Structures are given as C-alpha cells and as structure tokens.
Amino acid sequence: MEVDHIVKKFIATENYTLTPIINGLINVTFIVENKDTHQKFILQNINNQVFKNTDSIIINHLQVNCLLQSNDYQLDIIKPILSLSKDFLVQDENLQPWRMQSFVEDSVTFIKVPSSDIAFEAAKAFSHFLDVVNTGTLPNIEDTLPNFLNFEKRVQDYKEALKNADPQFSEKASAEIELTNQFLSLPNKWIEMVNNNQLPKRIIHADAKISNILFDENHEALAVIDLDTVMVSTILYDFGTMIQSYTNITNEDDGSAENNFNPEIYNAVKNGFLFHLKEKLSPEESAHLDYAAQVAIYIQEIRFLTDYLNGSIYYSTQYSEHNLDRTKNQLELLKGLNEFLGRRVF
C-alpha cells in the first residue's frame, strides 16, 4: 500500500503498526509504531489544497521550536522527524506531501470542552505557548494561509455570495441573512485597528481549539500541537477563537440549539489566557478581549453562511442545510455572548 511506501521513507523497518487518527479535519493522520524500537511517531499527509506552500509549514515549525527550546518552555515540544534521505517532507506517487513528527506518550485529547477546569488548563497552555514564542525578536514566519485573517475580505466575500446566491438558498436563509446584516459593522473596529497598526504583531497559533492541546491522565496540559497555521497577526484572534470553540456547549452542527453559550467556561478561558499574558498585553489588546470574542464568532458565522449561499463548496457537508445549521448555531452563540456581556442582542 502507498502508506507503507511512505513509512519506509522514514523508518528502516517493516516491523511496524499503523493506526489511523480519525478526528482530523484537514490532514490525514496515522500513529506509526516501530515494533523494533517501540518508538511511536505521527505520520501525516498534509492537505496541499489548503496549505499551498508546505515547505513554509516546516520552516515555521522549526523556527517556533527554536524559540521554545531557547526559552523557559515547560511543555513538550513536537519535533519534525527527518526521513532516511534527510528530508522533512517526502512525496507519494501522487506528489502529495507527507511528514513525520514526534509522538507524546500517554496523552489524551478532547474534541469538546468537558469542564471549565479543563478549559482553563487549555487556555493556560496556549497562554504559555504564546508568551514564550513572542519573547525577543520575531523570526520571519511565513504565511501558510494567505488572507485567512483578512476580515475585510471575509465580509466582502459574504456580500458577493449574497448578491450571487441561488434564490432558493437566499430564501431558506432569509432570517439568518437579516441577523447577519444587522451586525455587518461589528468587525469594522477590528479591521481599523489592524489596518492602522494599533495592535502589536505577534506570533499566534491561529487554530487554538481544545483538540490542539494534549493532556495527561490528570488533565494537565502536556503539549500544544498542530503548528501548521502559525502566523504573525494579532493575539486577539487566538483568544477569540478559543471563546468561539470552547464556550459552545452544543455541537456546532446543531441548528436548533438554544442557550448554547457557557459563561462559566468563558471566564475560565479568559483567566487561563491571561495567566501568562496579563502583563504582556498592550492596553489595546487588554481592552478588546470581549470584543475579539464577538468578532471571532461572527466571522465564523459569516464563513458558514457564505459557503451555504455559494452552494457549500468549501466546508465538508453531510446534508444540504448543513452550513445553514452551523450558521444558526453560531448566531445563537453570539446572542448568548452578547447577553452575557450586556451588549446589543438580537
């Protein structure tokens, strides 16, 4: 099999086992165990339709690891593994890129946040990671996802989708479109601050969901993983996406969800995020944490709605209204957050 051919480019044995990890959304991932040495590794096929420049992923990962190793970083560091030909990336017969990384033994992950205590621990781990990688002079981190955090473009893409949408999609989403349009000005302050360089440029993780933290059996953080999205932007994005993904007590596919925002988890995430960063944040960053949470949820809602209006061509869907249900879920989450913050509600 093709994966067998790839494995042998990294480890010089046929005595190994291969176990798929099925909860990844972008890359195809396996655990490889070398039965001769009892070593385990992570083997991944990087999705080069999402990540166009896979070399940049490796370059960024190595630079971030240098920062972690050079400073007082307390968590495990995920290391890229060289192939037998001394390359960090190898290609299969279809020219698809593969990489191998170190494996953290006896670790567990969560897809959903099970408690406020674990939410705090995860946010504290990201806080530590962000604190350490932003110590000293920033290296030249390459952009692996151009325009990913261009919120001006996200809003414009939504407007274009709305203008060109099939009438049946527009009609079914009429209530969600009306609510979305009420909040179209919400990202304006963010866009203004970014364009006017009011927010410090920092290395961020850019995918700070809880499944990118490895925990031990006592639910203490072991490692921050998946550095593919690392980029230079505003640290507010990591906080905002933590709130967007952690505080939702329902499945984001649930379009009938009500009261899906958890304020206790919100406070836990904020406390964890500030654990290592409170004294490092600029006044602008500190003042706009709540706002960042609102914008992150709204932008994710816009992305789901945009894709629905475009005929669901970006996100994987299981049924025709899948992206519309995701849109409804995010709108309900935003409503709950706004009520909690005492801000404008629907």
Structural description of this entry:
The protein contains twelve helices and ten strands. The chain has 346 residues and is of the alpha+beta class. Strands 1, 2, 3, 4, 5 and 6 form a six-stranded antiparallel sheet that branches. A two-stranded antiparallel ribbon has the order 7-10. Strand 2 and strand 3 form a beta hairpin. Helix 3 runs parallel beside helix 9 and helix 8 crosses helix 11. It is globular and about 60 Å long.
Distance between the termini: 54 Å
Helix share, percent: 40-55%
Overall form: globular
Mean pLDDT: 94
Run of helices and strands? HEEEHEEEHHHHHEEEEHHHHH
Low-confidence regions: none
Oligomer: single chain
Largest sheet: 6 strands, antiparallel
Radius of gyration (CA) equals 21 Å
Question: How much of the polypeptide forms β-strand, as a percent range?
Answer: 5-15%
Query: Structural class of the helices, strands and pairings?
Result: alpha+beta
- Tell how many strands the DSSP assignment holds: 10
Count of runs of 4 or more consecutive helical residues:
12
Key terms:
346 residues; alpha+beta; two-stranded antiparallel ribbon; 44% helix
Quick structural gist:
It is globular and about 60 Å long. It is an alpha+beta fold and 346 residues long.
What secondary-structure arrangement, pairings included, does this model have?
Blueprint (H helix, E strand, L loop, with lengths): L1 H9 L5 E6 L6 E7 L4 E7 L8 H17 L9 E2 L8 E2 L5 E6 L13 H18 L17 H14 L2 H6 L1 H9 L5 H8 L6 E3 L8 E3 L5 E4 L6 E3 L2 H11 L16 H15 L5 H5 L1 H21 L12 H20 L5
Antiparallel strand pairs: 1-2, 2-3, 3-6, 4-6, 5-6, 7-10, 8-9
